[in-house]
Amino acid sequence: MIKGEKCPLFSLQNQDNITINIADYIGKQNLVIYFYPKDNTKVCTAQACEFRDRMNDFAKLDSVVFGVSSDSVASHKKFALENNILFDILSDNDKSVRKLFGIKGNVFGLIPGRETYVIDKNGIIQGVYNALTEAKEHIDFAKGILNGL
Known about the structure:
two-stranded antiparallel sheet, 5 helices, 149 residues, five-stranded mixed beta sheet, Glutaredoxin, alpha/beta
């Protein structure tokens, strides 16, 4: 997916085993959907905690944040509890949503990609950021795009 395209619609289970349907948010709030490789790894934990620490900034920008990885609901639950993550972390077990967005693996395809998508209230992708080893930069990128909407 690239800037200017419509966000694919999907439904996934969050860390509380509740189905989150992205279509329910289109037309109501801006979205930040970030894909990350794995729970409880150094950069992924730093990224989730940075989003957590700046949730008020995103709320002021009328935005909701979703993290997505292929880890299980149980893994997400543990990760969220250990790190006080209060936003939805979605389980893409079969990697179907990752495929919908066209996210490729990095490092010879061995490590799932880390990409952040900023989607406006109309469901249009306004920005995409791809950087495997950077955590904070994804948050700064998303805020910068949202500030311009």
